[in-house]
Design a protein that fits this description.
single chain, 497 residues, alpha/beta, eight-stranded mixed β-sheet, binds nicotinamide-adenine-dinucleotide, oxidoreductase, NADP binding, EC 1.1.1.49, G6P_DH_AS
Length: 497
């Protein structure tokens, strides 16, 4: 793996929300930790602003994300701005000249990272121009970082991939899934493969089911136009949720290298049971929020949000049962659910172990609780193991005890933002936590079968109240299997707080 931290970073969409809220503060954190050797940033966007104005906006975004910081003037002195029209070759030709000058000035060895932080319809055309107008013609490395969504379905993703691959090889493409930058998502592998008490049990003999919930309290906010073309299935399930399933289900890689890990993840995608036709409504549930209350404040119907169709058929919630038909997981459901305007903002994984073969104990006259391993992804980060232990003073009574490790309690100030880690990985040439094309293609193929059915049939929406945990059908999905959703609110990691 290359470790050359010298690079010219070109951010397309440098006046946008992502650049301001995530990319500039993340670059500053890398700078302040001396992780950037020689670097410069060229911000590229449509607006005509001066480099001074751009540097001020970078400064403002660092200040608002991180508060007052040292060396800010030195940091922003590495930032330059170029006004750009993504469809015009002349823009790229002048950008190329400017990039060559900056490269020579900072001695950046011809290393280039092109970060596409723009609307997805521009991804393909920019990649083609970068090649045809000579920006990728460099003596160092060249890497393309590309934001979500990667296509709208499998055919559009293939088309985008073909455009990108004319200019960059697969190894040079870094498809962002920001969940793969999250500390506890990266921890899944370590929890599984570094603990003798988990890995031997990590299969259909001992695990009853795995539940992944990613809930938001926010509604669609200002993103109505985009969300209407996406919905929860495309926006959350095809990428983030499927990536978590793959990390939980994959076989141990023979080595911790990018290729080995990706190859194990791809095998999980290949083993997904195809859900299509009439089965879609047996395995998946969709929902759309109606009016309700969040934090004691009334919130509107999805269909009354800005830029949303009054008769919208777009799902703001999805729950599903995913089956992985391989030797390890045959018969174990992976239940997933994600949605907007739900009770709590929370991403959690609950691994529910099977009941013991014979129960000798009672917990105040009811059966023992199953053992649970809860991985808290956000907002709190940590692990909780739910066990049964003897109740003090009792005779044969058992009670549930929770062993917790809270990442936030221990490393609060040091947990780097996901984007910081992903940018760092990209500069080091480590693509492990980015999505390979094969993963994208398999997950679109899976999701397309579901959206095909849903697009043909109009749902009875709205079907869940804002502030709830989704439609009743999502509960019934698990009840059919004799299961239920573990609540996301009382599984907290609280011990270290
Ligand atoms: P945005 O609308 O805030 O910014 C878009 C940027 O593109 C602006 O800098 C604008 O000047 C530039 N631009 C638009 N049209 C242009 C043109 N014709 N020529 C040159 N520049 C042009 O968008 P955003 O929220 O920053 O999102 C950017 C990308 O990141 C999208 O793909 C989005 O899906 C993805 N993303 C954003 C977030 C987020 O938190 N904002 C999170 C995850 C993914």
């Amino acid at each position: 793996m290359e470790q050359n931290m010298t690079s010219l970073i070109m951010i397309f969409g440098a006046t946008g929300d992502l650049a301001k809220r995530k990319l500039f503060p993340s670059l500053y954190r890398l700078f302040s930790r001396n992780k950037l050797e020689k670097f410069a940033v060229i911000g590229v966007a449509r607006r005509t602003i001066s480099t001074d104005e751009f540097q001020q906006s970078v400064k403002d975004s660092v200040l608002s994300a991180l508060g007052n910081k040292d060396n800010l003037d030195e940091f922003v002195s590495h930032f330059y701005y170029q006004s750009h029209d993504v469809a015009d070759s002349n823009s790229y030709v002048s950008l190329r000249k400017f990039a060559d000058e900056i490269d020579a000035h900072y001695d950046l060895e011809g290393n280039r990272i092109f970060y596409l932080a723009m609307a997805p319809e521009f991804f393909g055309p920019i990649a083609l121009h970068l090649k045809s107008d000579g920006l990728t013609d460099v003596k160092g490395y060249k890497r393309l970082v590309i934001e979500k969504p990667f296509g709208h379905d499998l055919p559009s993703a293939k088309e985008l991939n073909t455009q990108i691959r004319t200019a960059f090889s697969e190894e040079e493409v870094y498809r962002i899934d920001h969940y793969l930058g999250k500390e506890m998502v990266r921890n899944i592998e370590v929890i599984r493969f570094a603990n003798a008490i988990f890995e031997p049990l990590w299969n259909n003999r001992y695990i009853s089911n795995i539940q992944i919930t990613s809930s938001e309290t926010l509604g669609v906010e200002e993103r109505g136009r985009y969300y209407e073309t996406s919905g929860a299935l495309r926006d959350m399930l095809q990428n983030h949720m499927m990536q978590m399933v793959a990390l939980l289900a994959m076989e141990p890689p023979i080595k911790l290298t990018t290729d080995e890990i990706r190859s194990e993840k791809v095998k999980v995608f290949r083993a997904l049971r195809t859900i299509e036709g009439d089965d879609v409504n047996n395995y998946f549930v969709r929902g759309q929020y109606g009016e309700g209350t969040i934090d004691e404040m009334p919130v509107p119907n999805y269909r009354d949000e800005p830029m949303v169709d009054k008769e919208s058929n777009t799902e703001t919630f999805v729950a599903g049962k995913i089956m992985i038909d391989n030797f390890r997981w045959a018969g174990v459901p992976f239940y997933i659910r994600t949605g907007k305007r739900m009770t709590a903002k929370s991403t959690k994984i609950v691994v529910q172990f099977k009941d013991i073969p014979m129960n000798l104990y009672y917990q105040t006259e009811k059966m023992l609780n199953p053992n649970l391993l809860v991985i808290h992804i956000q907002p709190e980060e940590g692990i909780t193991l739910h066990l049964n232990a003897k109740k003090a003073g009792g005779h044969l009574d058992a009670q549930e005890v929770k062993l917790s490790f809270a990442n936030t309690g221990v490393h609060a100030m040091n947990t780097p933002e996901g984007y910081e880690k992903l940018l760092y990985d990209c500069m080091r040439g480590d693509a492990t936590n980015f999505t390979h094309w094969d993963e994208v293609a398999y997950s679109w193929a899976f999701v397309d079968k579901i959206s095909e059915v849903w697009e043909k049939t109009k749902a009875t929406f709205p079907n869940y109240e804002a502030g709830s945990m989704g439609p009743i059908e999502a509960d019934e999905l698990l009840e059919k299997d004799g299961s239920f959703w573990w609540p996301v609110t009382n599984l907290e990691v609280d011990i270290c707080k």
